[in-house]
TrEMBL record:
Residues 1-86 form the B12-binding N-terminal domain. This is Cobalamin-dependent protein. Residues 86-212 form the B12-binding domain. The keyword Plastid does not apply. Keywords: Cobalt, Metal-binding. It comes from the Bacteria. GO terms for cellular component: cytosol.
Amino acid sequence: MAFEEIQSAVAEGKPRQAARLVEEALAEGAEGTAILNQGLLGGMRRVRLKMQDDIDVARALASARAMKEGMEKLKPFLEQGAMNTRGKILIGTAGGDLHDVGKNIVGYTLRYSGFQVVDLGVDVSAEQFVQAVRDNPDAGIVCISSLLTTSMPEMRHIVQALNGLDNRRSFQIMIGGGSVTREFAEEIGADAYTEDAAAAAEFAESVMGIKE
């Protein structure tokens, strides 16, 4: 099967079609990693490129649902290869935002890439992020997601609170989501901005690497 079909299903926001195409690709013997990287994530990259010219939140959400449905079919095949040996990452959606699809996609991609992921959930306050860092002193990255512009002030507050911790040098702060930009990340003092799940995994690998 051509992975372009899966990409199109995701880019066009067709959840049922995406799930069916993933099942067909698996039945034909395609590797889970190829379906994820060349199919599902490829579709999300196409959405991101379109949104650079025309921001359509409804389309982005539909594509995220299609990605989620495809991932559900793929998950058992990817879990076989997830070893969780590269280090620990905390992830959560900023306070005031109840969206979890993007966060979940990033979290699962990180898990498959070999990281242990602690999911803090949605509507996570600065205090909850700080407590999570204290409870997990071995975490190397804190990921903060935000789809809504209304939650960006809370994301700023979260980053400020994390930057004030005594062990700040022991972890990196990565932010992302539909409302976030690289400029905003720099402005609030985050270490990195990533545009999609693939970029998040690449950043994590560059920062943490494989821990023997």
